[in-house]
């Protein structure tokens, strides 16, 4: 097929995007899916740019947001936009769910949506953000256990200068609650810098920051990189969430538990 990179051609049916992905796979090019929801922000642009850095990649952005955002997506010189409607793709909801195992936040439907979009687009690669670290782990687990030949690439969380992670939920936080919201990033940062002293000290440090901000966290957890129990020494992931009004904000950071950043060589 004749193909020119960077045109951002819009596909709005399963049949057409499937034909596009299948044809590109036959050329041997990596077909990279960036699955997005209904909103667009700087974190999503970072995912798209990471996808474009994969050598020879054909980048498909699956986007459920308004058509008015397509021009911004095209500015990134992507190759295709799959303009999908979840209600059309899954008119009866997600009836077959891949759970991926226990998590702090139920994510079975999100894992299943990613797998569904991979099936529709025929992608060879998928790019996800570490802001949703649990989703990254669960999708990788599903790819492994179901023997799906897709490579997952994760991208570090994009943050505002004040440390707040860029996400659609954080945008909804009213201005008068922003300082309280900042306690989430501050608590995680403080906890990560206490990593060399072990799990309980990290958790205590996080809770102290929340307490000083007058915030009661929904949870503070440390897990292994596979979401299992945290190691006594080694790489781990620190998770926390707070609720402001009817909005739950959650965030996470990596930390060298029992080692500390200052003890890492080089």
Looking at this protein, list some descriptive labels.
ATP binding; three-stranded antiparallel sheet; Rossmann fold; pantothenate biosynthesis; 9 strands; 266 residues; Pantoate--beta-alanine Ligase, Chain: A,domain 2; globular; six-stranded parallel sheet; nucleotide-binding; ligase
Notes on the protein architecture:
- There is one protein chain.
- The chain has 266 residues and is an alpha/beta fold.
- It has 2 domains: 147 residues, Rossmann fold (3-Layer(aba) Sandwich), CATH 3.40.50.620; 93 residues, Pantoate--beta-alanine Ligase, Chain: A,domain 2 (2-Layer Sandwich), CATH 3.30.1300.
- The chain has 9 helices and 9 strands.
- It has a 6-stranded parallel sheet with strand order 1-4-3-2-5-6, with helices on both faces.
- Strand 3, helix 3 and strand 4 form a beta-alpha-beta unit.
- Helix 5 packs across helix 6 and helix 8 runs antiparallel to helix 9.
- The termini are far apart.
- It catalyses: (R)-pantoate + beta-alanine + ATP = (R)-pantothenate + AMP + diphosphate + H(+).
- Its EC number is 6.3.2.1.
- It is an enzyme of class 6 (ligase).
- InterPro entries: Pantoate_ligase (IPR003721), Pantoate_ligase_C (IPR042176), Rossmann-like_a/b/a_fold (IPR014729).
- This is pantoate--beta-alanine ligase (AMP-forming).
What can be said about this structure in brief?
It catalyses: (R)-pantoate + beta-alanine + ATP = (R)-pantothenate + AMP + diphosphate + H(+). The protein has two domains: 9-155, HUPs (Rossmann fold, 3-Layer(aba) Sandwich), CATH 3.40.50; 168-260, 2-Layer Sandwich (Pantoate--beta-alanine Ligase, Chain: A,domain 2), CATH 3.30.1300. It is 35% helix and 21% strand.
